[in-house]
């Protein structure tokens, strides 16, 4: 390493300052107290640990085998304390950033080349220490229920975009070349028995990984054959829908390659937001290419404002918005919509005429119903008058009416 002419002595003398910066960066983080208990005594104490690692950086030494084992033990402790891997990874990055920033502030002017060299070596050490930590995290659940914790851990690792090879090996799972990402919510299935049954279904499929529960579930279906993965996703969602009267909202996304799982999850999450706002959403997985109009609306505040203006005249009437929502949910079947609203068909016709007169848009026309559907979806995306029953996990028509005749 380049001779630093006193730079190691300067940084070593300020080691307590570096340790304090790390503590302040992590203070308030959800993983701070568990990590403090686990990592504090790694090398004798918080400051001793900081001095040990800073010394490795300054000497240019590789990570010794004993230190590798210590970081592996840290991963085991984190797993046993139920710290989610993404949370642990975030805390790790915060600590490294705080240490590097403080050292750069401490370094005298004109030492840029030497500090750059030290920072590069610190990054290499950090990669090795992180790998050891993840290996320990992956191996920890072997002492208990092996399959379920490891599958969940592997799913969370892939979702986070972190290296997953060691965890896959520990879980006995062979990673697929690509995965279809399903995000779904079935909030009405709240009993523990429901989740036990569905998690057993997921584990019966080879290579399927998952994280979360029925209130907010992420499933990774191996997609060496994308069409087969789509069938599995649809089958799982249909099974949920068959067991509940409440809504099952789902969205899926496929991107080639394991590295694109985070991007696929981001797209599926965006689509799910829209699915939950569509009045006539079906209990099946939706894809982004099915909702291009709604996605465009989501990114255009000006259009959303104009759509809100289409609905605002309906507030002069009674249950007019709700009438449109139920009509759409019934696939424009007026007989069924009247039954679901618990009104006579003539009353439904009167309400639709009233909607036309107030808004100037005819809900009986193809253009009119399409416009109202877009306006209602936009309003729900904005949180405007989302039916209380749907916020609580039930269908809109269940919120304030007696059970529909179709039940």
TrEMBL record:
Domain PucR C-terminal helix-turn-helix residues, every copy: 320-376
At the top level of its lineage, which domain of life is listed? Bacteria
Give the Basic and acidic residues compositional bias ranges: 383-398
Name the segments for region: Disordered: 383-407
What would be one Pfam family of this protein? HTH_30
What is the protein name stated in its UniProt record? PucR family transcriptional regulator
């Amino acid at each position: 390493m380049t001779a630093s002419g006193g730079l190691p002595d300067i940084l070593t003398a300020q080691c307590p300052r570096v340790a304090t910066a790390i503590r302040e960066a992590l203070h308030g983080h959800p993983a701070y107290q568990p990590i403090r208990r686990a990592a504090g005594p790694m090398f004798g104490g918080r400051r001793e640990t900081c001095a040990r690692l800073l010394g490795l950086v300054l000497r240019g030494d590789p990570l010794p085998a004993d230190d590798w084992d210590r970081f592996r033990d840290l991963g085991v402790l984190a797993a046993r304390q139920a710290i989610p891997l993404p949370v642990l990874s975030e805390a790790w990055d915060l600590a490294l950033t705080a240490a590097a920033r403080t050292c750069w502030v401490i370094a005298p002017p004109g030492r840029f080349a030497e500090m750059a060299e030290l920072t590069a070596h610190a990054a290499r050490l950090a990669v090795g220490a992180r790998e050891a930590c993840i290996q320990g995290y992956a191996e920890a659940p072997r002492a208990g229920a092996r399959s379920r914790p490891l599958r969940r851990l592997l799913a969370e690792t892939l979702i986070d975009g972190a290296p997953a090879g060691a965890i896959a090996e520990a879980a006995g799972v062979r990673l697929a070349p690509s995965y279809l990402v399903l995000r779904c919510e079935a909030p009405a299935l709240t009993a523990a028995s429901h989740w036990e049954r569905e998690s057993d279904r997921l584990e019966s499929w080879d290579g399927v990984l998952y994280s979360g529960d029925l209130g907010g579930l992420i499933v990774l279906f191996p997609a060496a054959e994308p069409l087969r993965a789509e069938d599995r996703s649809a089958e799982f969602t249909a099974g949920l829908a068959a067991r509940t009267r409440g809504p099952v909202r789902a969205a899926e996304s496929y991107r080639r390659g394991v590295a694109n799982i985070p991007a696929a999850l981001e797209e599926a999450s965006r689509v799910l937001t829209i699915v939950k706002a569509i009045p006539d959403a079906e209990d099946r997985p939706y894809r982004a290419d099915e909702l291009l109009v709604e996605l465009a609306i989501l990114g255009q505040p000006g259009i959303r404002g104009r759509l809100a203006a289409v609905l605002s005249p309906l507030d002069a009437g009674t249950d007019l918005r709700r009438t449109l929502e139920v009509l759409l949910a019934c696939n424009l079947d007026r007989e069924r919509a009247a039954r679901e609203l618990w009104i006579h068909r003539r009353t439904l016709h009167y309400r639709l005429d009233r909607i036309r007169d107030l808004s100037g848009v005819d809900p009986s026309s193809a253009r009119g119903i399409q416009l109202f559907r877009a306006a209602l979806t936009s309003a729900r995306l904005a949180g405007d008058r989302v039916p209380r029953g749907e916020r609580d996990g039930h269908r809109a028509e269940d919120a304030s009416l007696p059970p529909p005749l179709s039940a």
